[in-house]
Automatic annotation (TrEMBL):
Residues 124-219 form the OmpR/PhoB-type domain. The keyword Electron transport does not apply. Residues 2-116 form the Response regulatory domain. It comes from Micromonospora antibiotica. InterPro entries: CheY-like_superfamily, OmpR/PhoB-type_DNA-bd, Sig_transdc_resp-reg_receiver, WalR-like, WH-like_DNA-bd_sf. This is Response regulator transcription factor. Keywords: DNA-binding, Phosphoprotein. The modification 4-aspartylphosphate is found at residue 51. Residues 124-219 bind DNA. SUPFAM superfamilies: CheY-like.
Length: 220
């Protein structure tokens, strides 16, 4: 899951980023409206957590432009105002959800996760290929009934490959969906992660390399 946080209160923004990353999400951050607008239209995010009152481009304008673009990206709007009129105005601009400050972090996470489910084509609540079962909600993976202990990135890669249902997923796509903007695009981190993932999943092999194209799952 890829998330963009656009918030000018740096301490709050950084706290949100750290918390979401601990939940296994790939998170980028922008501290003003201009940077947030650029990021939102350069990278395909599942969810944008967007403050309304931003320096530079106002959050309302970013929200309206995202809604008008037809993107599948969902917008969770944050604001210090909790008035009904303010909430109605934000939703009228095209926001998918609205959360007043201050907020409970667990509620923010729950809302981001709910919006992310709407940002991508519907997938079964539990994913399976062969004898490997992946439960995204509980972040649990088993093979032949035995638990498989994966890091957040390994879980993210496996999830993207299983959701593709045998279609090839390129390294570039995995890098965009599982890692954040701070990752070097020329890194070998995807190849390394796939290698350790294969090792943890064991035999028979579940992930196949398609030379020059990427990776796909195969049913043993």
């Amino acid at each position: 899951m890829r998330v963009l946080v656009v918030e000018d209160e740096r301490n709050l923004a950084d706290a949100i980023v750290r918390g979401l990353r601990k939940r296994g999400m790939a998170v980028d951050v922008a501290y003003d409206g201009d940077a947030g607008h650029e990021a939102a239209f350069v990278t395909r995010y599942d969810v944008v957590v967007l403050d309304r009152d931003l320096p530079g481009m106002h959050g309302d304008q970013i929200c309206a432009e995202l809604a008008a673009s037809g993107t599948l990206t969902r917008v969770l709007m944050l604001t210090a105002s909790d008035s009904v009129a303010d909430r109605v105005a934000g939703l009228g601009l095209g926001a998918d959800d609205y959360l007043p400050k201050p907020f409970a972090f667990d509620e923010l996470v729950a809302r981001v996760q709910a919006l992310a489910r709407r940002a991508t084509p519907a997938a079964p609540p539990v994913l399976q290929v062969g004898d490997v079962v992946l439960d995204p909600a509980r972040r649990v993976v088993t093979r032949a009934g035995a638990p498989v202990d994966l890091t957040n990135k390994e879980f993210g890669v496996l999830s993207e490959l299983v959701k593709a249902r045998g279609a090839v997923v390129s390294s570039e796509e995995l890098l965009e969906r599982v890692w954040d903007a701070n990752t070097d695009p020329f890194t070998t981190i995807v190849r390394v992660t796939v290698r350790t993932l294969r090792k943890k999943l064991g035999d028979p092999p579940l992930i196949e390399t398609v030379v020059g194209a990427g990776y796909r799952t195969v049913s043993p």
